[in-house]
C-alpha cells in the first residue's frame, strides 16, 4: 500500500469485488497501482469500503501466474497438493502456442470421440460482460449444448427464477440509491455492512433522515443498530414469517386494491392461500411475536414508498425461490414497485454477477434471459454467430455438472475465473469430481484450489489489467479500463478465449472487446441505446436506456411488467422445511457467508496485505453463552462436523448469533466451510442450501 500521494498517472475503473460496482480512480506509479480513491460513480458517489480502498495489491502478488503451465507427466495424483508459490513441482512452463494447443486439443479430442456433452464450462462473475458472452458462446457453439454455468448458481439463481416468473425480469426494479426516496425499507437475509458496505452507507443515511428500517435475519446483523424493527427469526422460517406479515395485510385490508387490479394476476389465489398463515400460528414457527409481525405489516403496507432488499439469506435455501416469491408478493400487494423510493432489490454479490447472467452464462438462458428451448431465439443467435444449431435442451447447472462428472458423462472442463474446488457445496465431492476429469483447462490469475486439478493453466488478467464492461446490482453498465499491464506473459481473458476457440474450429476474428460488445447488442435488447463509445465517455449507463442520451432508468415497471398483459403475478408459497433437521447427532445449525475483509473464496483478498492483516485466520462465530456451556474461550479451536465432513477452526464470540447457530465464513481453505455444507438444492433456481446444515460443535482437547 502506497505511503506517498505522488503518482505517474491515474485511471478510472470499477472495484473488482462486490456487486455495488463502486467507481475508482487508480493512482499508478512505476507501473503499479499505488493507491485507490473513490470517484463519483452513480452507485458509490465517491465512497469506497475497505476492500475497494485497500484490497487492490493482490494484482502485484508474487503468486501471480506469469507463464502458461502444463501438468507434468510425473506429477502426483491430482489434488490440493500444489503450492501456489511453487507450482513447478506439478506443472511445467510452456509457450502460449503449446499451452493453447494442448488445452484446446484435449477438449477437441473428447468432443470428437465422446461427443460435445463430454465437455462442460464454468465461467465467472469476475469476467467482464464481453468475456462472459464469449465463454457461453464458446461452449454452445463449440460443443453444441448448454452445459455452461457460473457462480450465480451459488448466489441469486433462486431470486432470478422468482423475479422472471413473477415480474418478467431477473434484475432489480429500482437502484439501491432509490432508498433516498423511501420512507420504509425491509432488509432481509443480508448483511450489507459487511457484504455491500457502500450500499449500507446509503441505508444508514436513510435512517438518519427518519426512514424506518426493518431488518430481518436469523443473525443480528450490524444494520440492526439503525433499525426500528429487528426480526431475528428462526433459520429457515422465512416463508412462515413473510406469509404471516402478508396475512395481516390481507386480514386488515391494508393492500393496494387499485394497484392489484391494474397490474397483477392471481391475487385471489394468493389471498386464499394466506388465510392459513395467521401471526399467532406462524409465531411459534418463526419465533417472532404476533404483534411485531402486525406492526411490520402495517408499517410496510402503509408506507408512501417502500423498498425490499435481500441477499443470500433468502436465496441459499431449498425454498429460496419461495422466499423470493413472498417478497415479490409483499411488494405487489402493497403497490410498492415502479415509483420513486419503491421497488425490489436483490443485492447482487459479485462485481459482474448481474452482467455475466445477462450475457447468458447460464444453462437455461441465452443472453438477455432468452430461453434456449425457443427455436426462434436459438436461430437468432446462430444467425449472428454464423454457425449451425446447438441443443434446445436446458443445460446442467454447477452442482449437476459435478454429479455428471461422477456419473462418467462429463469428462473435460474449461473453467475461467471460478473456484468451485472451494465454492461448491459438499466440496470434497466436487474436488473428487475434478480429480476424475480427463482434461481440465483452468484460466485464472493464481493457482487456485481448482487450478490444482488442472491439466493446463492459462495465466489471465486481473480486473485492473483489462478492458471491458461490467454490470452492477443497479443494472448500471460500467466501463472497466486497464490501469497496469498483466505480469509476465499473462494475457487478457478475451484474447485467450478467442485463441482457444480458434483451435476448436471457431474463427471468431475479434480484435478488441468493443467488437464483442457490438455483437452482444444485436440480440440483447437490454443494451439498446448503450454503446461502447457512450460507456467510454460517460463511464456508466443504466439499462434500460430509452434514447442515445438517456442515462438510463433507475426505476422500472411503473406502467406494467414484461409479462402477458403487462401484469405481474402472485405465486403463493408454502412452507418447506430445511433439508436437514438438527438432531441428537448434529444438534446445531450451521450457516455460511462472507466477512467484510474477505471476498468469496479468498483467492484475491487473502493476498491483499491490509485485508489479510485485519482478518488473517479462519474463524467461526457462536453466541458467548454457547461457548461458555461448552467450556470454550474465544480464540480456542473447536471442531465442526456435519454429515459431509469435519473441520477444526478458531471460535469467536458474537452476541448477534442465535444460541443454536454457528456462522462460518467460506474464504479460508485451511478450514473450508464447504466441506460441511449441504448440496441439496432449490428445485427452481437449483441453488444449494448454504444457509442451513445440521452441525455438531465440539471442544478440541487442546482447547
Ligand atoms: Fe468495492 Fe463493493 Fe466495497 Fe464498493 S462496496 S468498494 S464495490 S467491495
TrEMBL record:
Its EC number is 1.17.1.9. It is an enzyme of class 1 (oxidoreductase). Keywords: 4Fe-4S, Iron, Iron-sulfur, Metal-binding, Oxidoreductase, Repeat. One of its GO terms (molecular function) is formate dehydrogenase (NAD+) activity. Residues 8-63 form the 4Fe-4S Mo/W bis-MGD-type domain. In the C-terminal section; belongs to the prokaryotic molybdopterin-containing oxidoreductase family. This is Formate dehydrogenase subunit alpha. It comes from Pseudohalocynthiibacter aestuariivivens. The chain holds residues 220 to 922 of 926 of the full protein.
Amino acid at each position: 500500500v502506497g505511503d506517498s500521494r505522488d503518482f505517474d498517472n491515474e485511471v478510472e475503473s470499477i472495484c473488482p469485488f462486490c456487486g455495488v460496482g463502486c467507481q475508482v480512480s487508480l493512482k499508478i506509479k512505476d507501473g503499479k497501482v499505488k493507491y485507490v480513491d473513490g470517484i463519483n460513480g452513480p452507485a458509490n458517489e465517491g465512497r469506497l469500503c475497505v476492500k475497494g480502498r485497500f484490497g487492490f495489491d493482490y494484482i502485484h502478488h508474487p503468486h501471480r501466474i506469469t507463464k502458461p503451465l502444463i501438468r507434468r507427466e510425473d506429477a502426483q495424483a491430482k489434488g490440493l497438493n500444489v503450492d501456489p508459490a511453487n507450482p513447478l513441482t506439478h506443472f511445467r512452463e510452456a509457450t502460449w502456442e503449446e499451452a493453447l494447443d494442448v488445452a484446446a486439443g484435449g477438449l477437441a479430442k473428447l468432443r470428437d470421440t465422446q461427443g460435445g456433452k463430454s465437455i462442460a464450462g464454468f465461467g465467472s462473475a469476475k469476467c467482464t460482460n464481453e468475456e462472459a458472452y464469449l465463454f457461453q458462446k464458446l461452449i454452445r457453439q463449440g460443443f453444441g449444448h448448454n452445459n455452461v454455468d457460473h457462480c450465480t448458481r451459488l448466489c441469486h439463481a433462486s431470486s432470478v427464477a422468482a423475479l422472471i416468473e413473477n415480474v418478467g425480469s431477473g434484475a432489480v426494479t429500482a437502484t439501491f440509491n432509490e432508498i433516498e426516496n423511501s420512507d420504509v425499507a425491509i432488509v432481509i437475509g443480508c448483511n450489507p455492512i459487511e457484504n455491500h458496505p457502500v450500499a449500507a452507507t446509503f441505508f444508514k443515511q436513510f435512517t438518519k433522515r427518519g426512514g424506518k428500517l426493518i431488518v430481518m435475519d436469523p443473525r443480528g446483523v450490524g444494520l440492526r443498530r439503525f433499525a426500528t424493527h429487528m426480526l431475528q427469526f428462526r433459520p429457515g422460517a422465512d416463508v412462515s414469517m413473510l406469509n404471516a406479515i402478508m396475512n395481516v395485510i390481507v386480514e386488515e385490508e391494508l393492500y393496494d386494491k387499485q394497484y392489484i387490479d391494474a397490474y397483477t394476476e392471481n391475487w385471489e389465489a394468493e389471498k386464499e392461500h394466506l388465510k392459513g398463515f395467521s401471526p399467532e400460528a406462524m409465531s411459534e414457527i418463526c419465533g417472532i411475536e404476533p404483534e411485531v409481525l402486525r406492526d411490520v405489516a402495517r408499517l410496510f403496507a402503509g408506507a408512501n414508498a417502500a423498498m425490499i432488499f435481500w441477499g443470500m439469506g433468502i436465496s441459499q435455501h431449498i425454498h429460496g425461490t419461495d422466499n423470493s416469491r413472498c417478497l415479490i408478493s409483499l411488494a405487489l400487494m402493497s403497490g410498492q414497485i415502479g415509483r420513486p423510493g419503491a421497488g425490489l432489490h436483490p443485492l447482487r454479490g459479485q462485481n459482474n454477477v448481474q452482467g455475466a447472467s445477462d450475457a447468458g452464462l447460464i444453462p437455461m438462458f441465452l443472453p438477455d434471459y432468452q430461453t434456449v428451448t425457443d427455436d426462434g431465439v436459438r436461430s437468432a443467435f446462430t444467425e449472428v454467430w454464423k454457425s449451425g444449431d446447438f441443443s434446445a435442451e436446458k443445460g446442467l447447472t454447477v452442482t449437476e455438472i459435478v454429479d455428471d462428472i461422477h456419473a462418467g458423462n462429463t469428462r473435460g472442463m474449461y473453467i475461467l475465473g471460478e473456484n468451485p474446488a472451494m465454492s461448491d457445496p459438499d466440496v470434497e465431492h466436487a474436488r473428487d469430481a475434478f480429480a476424475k476429469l480427463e482434461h481440465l483447462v483452468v484460466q485464472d490469475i493464481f493457482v487456485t484450489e481448482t487450478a490444482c486439478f488442472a491439466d493446463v493453466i492459462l495465466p489471465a488478467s486481473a480486473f485492473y489489467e483489462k478492458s471491458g464492461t461490467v454490470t452492477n446490482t443497479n443494472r448500471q453498465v460500467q466501463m472497466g479500463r486497464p490501469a497496469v499491464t498483466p505480469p509476465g506473459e499473462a494475457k487478457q481473458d478475451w484474447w485467450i478465449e478467442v485463441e482457444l476457440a480458434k483451435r476448436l474450429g471457431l474463427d471468431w476474428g475479434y480484435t478488441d472487446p468493443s467488437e464483442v460488445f457490438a455483437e452482444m447488442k444485436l440480440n440483447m435488447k437490454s443494451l439498446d441505446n448503450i454503446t461502447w463509445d457512450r460507456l467510454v465517455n460517460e463511464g456508466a449507463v443504466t439499462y434500460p436506456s430509452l434514447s442515445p442520451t438517456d442515462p438510463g432508468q433507475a426505476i422500472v415497471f411503473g406502467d406494467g411488467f414484461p409479462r402477458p398483459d403487462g401484469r405481474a403475478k402472485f405465486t403463493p408459497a408454502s412452507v418447506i422445511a430445511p433439508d436437514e433437521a438438527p438432531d441428537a447427532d448434529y444438534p446445531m445449525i450451521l450457516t455460511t457467508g462472507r466477512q467484510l475483509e474477505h471476498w468469496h473464496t479468498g483467492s484475491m483478498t487473502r493476498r491483499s496485505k491490509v485485508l489479510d492483516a485485519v482478518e488473517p485466520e479462519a474463524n467461526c462465530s457462536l453466541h458467548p453463552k454457547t461457548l461458555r456451556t461448552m467450556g470454550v474461550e474465544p480464540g480456542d479451536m473447536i471442531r465442526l462436523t456435519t454429515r459431509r465432513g469435519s473441520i477444526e477452526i478458531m471460535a469467536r464470540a458474537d452476541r448477534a448469533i442465535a444460541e443454536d447457530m454457528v456462522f462460518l465464513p467460506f474464504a479460508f481453505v485451511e478450514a473450508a466451510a464447504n466441506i460441511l455444507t449441504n448440496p441439496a438444492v432449490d428445485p427452481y433456481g437449483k441453488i444449494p442450501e448454504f444457509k442451513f446444515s445440521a452441525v455438531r460443535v465440539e471442544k478440541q482437547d487442546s482447547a
